[in-house]
Design a protein that fits this description.
alpha+beta, 5 helices, single chain
């Protein structure tokens, strides 16, 4: 999905991933995507887990999907400038500091 996001036009991406269920019109998607913030799209597609700032991660950790069942994973958070928390599992070997302009940080296990 991220590869496609980098190479497809907005219209091609919107059609390929059937985003009309999220953004009914292509123009609406283009307005929301003008800053190229893929995190919101990945939340809608359930690749990233979104949690309200008042909620405790440990109460919801079992709801975070592991899309890497054959690899060791680590939990990362995405630092957006709002009152939500965003989490995803990624392979332990992944060395990512950001996803576009969004800062990504490893979450310490408690």
């Amino acid at each position: 999905m991220i590869k496609d996001y980098n190479v497809l036009s907005d219209e091609q991406f919107w059609k390929k991933y059937n985003l009309k269920e999220i953004w009914f019109e292509l123009e609406e998607y283009k307005r929301h995507n003008k800053d190229r913030n893929i995190v919101f799209l990945l939340v809608d597609k359930e690749f990233i887990f979104q949690l309200d700032y008042k909620e405790d991660l440990m109460d919801y950790i079992e709801n975070i999907h592991n899309y890497w069942p054959s690899q060791e994973i680590k939990l990362v958070s995405f630092e957006l400038d709002n009152d939500q928390q965003y989490y995803a599992y990624v392979p332990k070997s992944a060395m990512i500091n950001s996803l576009y302009e969004v800062k990504v940080m490893e979450v310490e296990n408690e």
